[in-house]
Amino acid sequence: MGFGQILRTLREERHLTQHDLVAPGLSRTLISHYEHERRLPSFEHVQYLAQRLQVATDVFFGGHGMDTAHAQFLHCLKAGEQAERREHWADAQSWWDHALWIATTFHFVTWIPLIHWHQVQTAWAQQQWKAVVQWGVPLLVHGQSDLSREDAYRLFAILGHAHRELDQLSTAELFYQLAQTRSGIQTEQGLKMMINRASCRWLLGDCREAARLFDGVRHEAADHHWASLEAWAQIGWTTAQLSQDRPTDCLEALDRAAHLADALADLALQQAVQQNRLVIARMRGQWNDVDHIFSELRTLRSPLPLSWITERLYWCGATGAWEEGQEWVRKAEQCAGLGQEVRDFWRATAVFFQAWGSPRRSALAQRLATLQNMTLAESLAIFRWEEEEGASNDMAH
Q1: Number of DSSP helices (H) and strands (E) in the chain, helices first
Q2: How far apart are CA 354 and CA 227, in angstroms?
C-alpha cells in the first residue's frame, strides 16, 4: 500500500475522522489529498501523523524491517526542508540527491515525485537550468498527479523559464501556455504567462503574434486594475510594433506605461519605457534625444543590456563615433541575448560598419542577422574569427 492508503487505514481503525487529525498547517483538505495520494507530506507532517496515530513512522513506508533505510530517508527529508528554508541551496541539493538514492534503492516509489519536485525548486533557486529540465520533465510525466494545482502551475512556469534561458524558445512558449491553461486564462497568473508567451513569440521573430498577445493582456489587465501587468504589456506591445516599423500609437502606450511605472515606483518598468522611447527617437532620426536618453540609462545598469548597445550603435553610425562604436561591439561580449535581440544587434552593427565604410564587416553582420538558432556568444565568435581571417588576407595581399 502507498502512504495514503496506510494513513486512511490507520485513521479508520482508530475511528477517527479527517477533521480529528487537523493541526496548525495541516487542514482537512490536505489530509484528504494525502489519503487520495494527490499530495505527499513534509517531514513534519509524517512525524505528527505518526505521533497522533500512535505508530512508528516506518509504518508509512510499508512496515518494519527497514528501520535504518526509513530513518535515513526521513532524516534526508527533514534536512533538505531545513536547508531550503535557510536558502542553503547547495546543501538542500545534496540532501535531495541522497533521498532519491534511498527511495530508489529501497523502493519508496511513491515518494520519488516529491523528491523530484524539491530537486526542481533547488535547481531553480541556483539557476541551474539544465537540472531544472532534468528533474522537471520526469516529474511532469510521472508525478503531475501528486502536485496541487498551484504547484503544477509553478512547475509549468519554471520549465518555461528554464527552456527560455536555454534558448529553446518554442518549448518555453509551450510550457508557458500550459501554465496559463492550468491557472486560468483571465487570472493574474494566466496573464503573466501570456506576457511570457508573447515575449517568446517576439524573440522568435513573430512580431505580429507577439503584438496580438500583448494587446490582449494590456486591455484585460486594465479592466482588472492590475497595474504592473498592464504596464509590462503596454511596453511589450510597443516593442513588437516598433519591430514591425509601426510606431503609430506607441508614444501614447508608453505614456500610459510610464504613468503606471511612476505610480508603482518600479525602476525596471521606468527603464523599459525609456528603452522604447530611445527606439522611437532613433527611428525619427532625433539623434540628440537618442544621446540624452542613452546617457540617462547607462548610469542605471552595468553591464548594459544588449538592446541598449544596439541603439547606441545606430547613434555611433549616424554621428561618426567610430571608435566608440567598435568599443560597443566588443562590450556586447558581456551581454546576454536571445533570438530577436541578437538579430537586432547585428542589424545595427551592419548599419554602423556600412556608415564607417567597412562593407566587408557590414556584409558579415548582415549575414549574422539572418541566422535563427544561434546565441549571441556563438555569433560573436564567428564575427571575430572571420574578422581576423579577413585581416590576415588583407595583409597577405
Answers
A1: 20, 0
A2: 43
SS3 content of the chain, % helix, strand, coil (to 5): 80, 0, 20
How far apart, in whole angstroms, are the C-alpha atoms of residue 195 and residue 176? 9
Q: Give the pLDDT confidence score for residue 152 in this predicted structure.
A: 87
- Evaluate whether 343 touches 369 at the Cβ level (below 8 Å): yes
Please tell me the distance from the alpha carbon of residue 131 to that of residue 129, in angstroms, as a whole number: 5
258: Cβ–Cβ under 8 A, 6 or more apart, which residues?
Answer: 270, 273
Question: What is the reported pLDDT for 396?
Answer: 44
Residue 397: what pLDDT?
37
**Burial group, residue 55, by CB count within 10 angstroms (0-12, 13-18, 19+):** middle
CB-based contacts of 386-390 (< 8 A; 24+ apart in sequence): 387/361, 390/360, 390/361
Q: Take residue 293 and report the three cell numbers written for it.
A: 536618453
Whose grid coordinates read 532613433?
Answer: 282
How is residue 157 written as a grid cell? 512556469
Please tell me the predicted confidence (pLDDT) of residue 394. 47
Cell of 185: 486564462
Q: Tell me the C-alpha distance between 387 and 349, whole Å.
A: 13
DSSP string, 137-193: HHHHHHSGGGS-HHHHHHHHHHHHHHHHHTT-HHHHHHHHHHHHHHH-TTSHHHHHH
The pLDDT tens digits of the residues spanning 125-180 come to 999 999 999 999 888 876 555 677 888 899 999 999 999 999 999 999 999 999 99
Q: Which helix (H) or strand (E) holds 306?
A: helix 306-319
Residue 120's φ and ψ, nearest 5 degrees, are -60, -50
**pLDDT attached to residue 189:** 96
Q: Which residues of the chain have pLDDT under 70?
A: 1-2, 58, 61-68, 142-146, 390-397
Q: How many whole angstroms separate alpha carbon 60 and alpha carbon 2?
A: 8
The overall pTM is greater than 0.90: no
